[in-house]
Amino acid sequence: MTETSAGSRSIVIEREFAHPPEKVWRALTQRSLIEQWLLENDFEAAVGRKFTLRTAPKPGWNGVIDCEVMVVEPTTRLVYSWKPFEGLTTVVSWTLTPTMNGTRVRMEQSGFRPDQNGAFKGASYGWQKFFGGLEGVVAGLE
């Protein structure tokens, strides 16, 4: 799902997981779990913490995403910047809301300019894949 607003675009994915927010939070904030569903990383859930996400380099890209933690509200909200290359910096926001059956998980990646259509399409595809991986990791937690 995507949204358009005032000159920038956002990717929004929202799903309900049949697990409590604490389990989802662990998968979003523990390095070893993040690596299972997203990418290699040196993440720490601390505001101001700079971290990188890493994957295999591709032609024209070194495979490194520079990030910085902006908001940490345990089991509720996590926000970080996402800069895969010069000229593209977006913000990834996770919101966890308890439901009768588990947790509503909402991810929004905002800040794509209209001229960044390739990056927008690539991220839209990638997040669908990553979300499936996240669900699998959460389901496997005790």
SSE layout and pairings?
Elements: E1 2-5, E2 8-17, H1 21-29, H2 31-37, E3 40-41, E4 50-54, E5 64-73, E6 77-85, E7 88-99, E8 102-112, H3 117-139
Antiparallel strand pairs: 1-2, 2-8, 3-4, 4-5, 5-6, 6-7, 7-8
Helix pairs in contact: 1-2, 1-3, 2-3
Structure in words:
The protein is an alpha+beta fold and 142 residues long. The chain has a single domain (2-139), classed as Alpha-D-Glucose-1,6-Bisphosphate, Chain A, domain 4 (2-Layer Sandwich), CATH 3.30.530. It is 27% helix and 44% strand. Strands 1-2-8-7-6-5-4-3 form an 8-stranded antiparallel beta sheet. Helix 1 (21-29) packs across helix 3 and helix 2 (31-37) crosses helix 3 (117-139). The longest helix is centred in the last third of the chain and has 23 residues, at 117-139.
